[in-house]
Amino acid sequence: MKCQQCEKPATFHITELTGEKPHELHLCEQCAQSYLTNNPSGGTPIQPSLAGMLHHQLKVADTAKELAKLDEQVCPICGISFYEFRNQGRLGCPHDYTCFGSELEPLIVNIHGDSQHAGKHPKHHQQTSQEQTRLIQLHNDMKAAVEKEDYERASQIRDEIRKIEDGQS
Amino acid sequence: MRGSGPESDIVISSRIRLARNLAEFPFIRRCSPQDRKSIEKMVHDRLHAIPGFNALYYLRVDELAHVDRQFLTERQLISREHAEAEGARSVAIDNDERLSVMINEEDHLRIQVMKSGLDLHSAWQQINEVDDQLESKLTYAFHERLGYLTACPTNVGTGMRVSVMLHLPALVITNQIEKVFRSLQKINLAVRGLYGEGSQAMGDFYQISNQITLGKSEEELIGQVSGVVPMIIAYERKARDFLITQNREDLHDKISRAYGILCTAQTISSEETMHLLSSVRMGVNLGLIDDLAISDINKLFVETQPAHLQKLRGNELDTAGRNIERALYLRRYLQDRGKEHRDERN
Ligand SMILES: [Zn+2]
Ligand SMILES: [Zn+2]
After folding, report:
1. How far apart are CA A109 and CA B214, in angstroms?
2. In Å, how far is B286's CA from the nearest CA of chain A?
3. Of the candidates A36, A116, A161, which has its C-beta nearest B175's C-beta?
4. Which of B92, B200, B211, B277 is the most exposed place for a label (fewest CB within 10 A)?
5. Mean pLDDT of chain B
6. Are A111 and B212 an interchain contact pair (Cβ–Cβ within 8 Å)?
7. Is the pLDDT of residue B199 over 50?
8. Interface of B with A in 258-317 (CB under 8 A)
């Protein structure tokens, strides 16, 4: 077989994996080398990091003053600030997806190209995110009650947690 | 890995992991030491209440010696992060080491199923069932629109990472591996090298996994990875054919020398071992070495790692000591296997 780009015998048989079907190329060593090094397919070589993505996104969206204000925003449930999230790339609790929602939304679309879950759902009773937030809150309250040795209050809270978990709220 | 399963000449293993969090606790980063203990205990109790789960080995990772944590990492039963983190954390492992559940990793739960060869569909069946069983006993953090909520927004949605570990020596030798990477990145798949002792990319092993987790169903994500793997396999086979038809002597020589070093070295680093084993593995696949099986090589990859050698020896070893122990282990193993194979043939 001859090289597709010159008269020499083809010794490299390259299969392009981009696109719907694999596409075959038959090249001599020289043409193959230049084909591979020139990267005609282009494309982004490295997936940008989460922090980098966020940084870029915020730089575009906000002035320094707005960003500083945004950084001070704190989740009422877990106490994480937006600044901490921006630095560590990890959220503090499920409620952050709601309370930092408007900042997270474009980031999520940027990462996944989508913002709507299409996979499995828990089969058993599922609480709304509001109920789930309430659960964390009650959990915190219960810890505080136990610390204060207010066991009556703690057991009331426990009942309330059970109600939500069992879907009776 | 056993060196069995579909396409096991090129595909080492298939793995699926699911990230899950409990609704009533903050994510790990914001957990108090007490929260971590409560989560650990809660998941432990619920795991035991699931039929068929009491057979699991349950290990408190924070109470293990450093070498034991490293041992679990080398067997891919826990992540490096989980081995090195702080605070209450644990792992449940099933008998055949295919299923493991990490508790208090980056997320409260990281469920993982691993199979030999290319076998994502049965891995999904198993992990989906385990997830359902756990979910019947625990309340997961789940959002109506965003799906399973995770500590990092890169995992939100399905919380699922599908990965396949491939051995691609011929694509490396023929300098075509970069090309494969670029093609994969274009269709949103991530590729990473296998890392050894010093987090340096090792040998010719590459892991392909899904980059996105939201907006596609689990089956679609699995389909994306399992659809591209046969193309890479065909591509690698083609490169092997090319090498063997164009340059059989050179290839045979390279492989025989690698085997020779492994059989005779008196001290050897884990990096060099990986590279040489990689050549020998391809040699076995191509029929250029006939007194070893793929399962032997896969076993050696695992057992020549630092913590495995130290467990074998029964005491701690520094780098130099490990290199000597590794060479000794390889010499003995390869001599025995070679002899068995020769006996079988005679
Ligand atoms: Zn040419
Ligand atoms: Zn929060």
Report:
1. 9
2. 19
3. A36
4. B200
5. 90
6. yes
7. no
8. none
**A34-74 pLDDT, tens per residue?**
666 554 343 333 334 566 666 666 655 556 677 778 888 99
Give contacts of A94 with chain B, Cβ < 8 Å. Answer: 21, 23, 27, 141, 143, 149
Nearest Cα residue to A76 out of A145, A130, A133, A8: A133
Asked whether the ipTM of the predicted complex exceeds the cut of 0.90, the reply is no
pLDDT at B55: 62
Chain B, nearest residue to A46 by Cα:
B185
Chain centre distance of CA B144: 33
The pLDDT of residue A42:
34
According to the model, what pLDDT value does residue A131 have? 84
CB-based contact B139 A127, cutoff 8 Å: yes
- Nearest ligand by distance to the CA of A90: 2
d(CA A123, CA B139): 11
> Using CA atoms, how far apart are residues B206 and B278, in angstroms rounded to an integer?
12
Cβ contact, residue pair B34, A143, below 8 Å: yes
Percent of all residues in chain A with a pLDDT value above 70, rounded to a whole number: 70
The residues in B 171-230 lying below 8 A from A, measured between CB atoms, are: 174-176, 178-180, 182-188, 190, 211-218, 220-221, 228
Long-range CB contacts (< 8 A, 24+ apart) of B187-191?
A: B187/A18, B187/B224, B187/B228, B188/A113, B188/B212, B188/B224, B189/B224, B189/B225, B189/B228, B190/A47
CA dihedral B117, B118, B119, B120 (to 10 degrees): 130
- The predicted-structure confidence for B125-181, as pLDDT tens digits, reads as follows 999 999 999 998 898 999 989 999 999 999 999 999 999 999 999 998 898 888 888
3-class state of residue B127 by DSSP: helix
Dihedral pair phi/psi, residue B160, rounded to 5°: -110, 135
Which ligand approaches the C-alpha of residue A31 most closely? 1
Of A11, A112, A128, Cβ closest to residue B144: A128
Could you tell me which residues come within 8 angstroms of residue B241 by beta carbon, excluding any fewer than 6 positions away?
none
**Residue A149: pLDDT over 70:** yes
Closest chain A CA to residue B220:
A119
Q: Compute the half-sphere exposure of residue B18: CA atoms within 13 Å on the CB side of its CA.
A: 27
**Summary mean pLDDT of chain A:** 77
Residue with tokens 């980031």: A107
Nearest CA among B176, B164, B165, B163 for reference residue B238? B176
B34–A89 CB contact, under 8 Å: no
CA distances in angstroms from B168 to A75, B194, B238, listed in the order given: 47, 12, 11
For A:75-114, CB contacts with B below 8 A are: 77-80, 88-94, 97, 104, 107-108, 111-114
**Closest-CA residue in chain B for A98?**
B143
Higher pLDDT, A23 or B128: B128
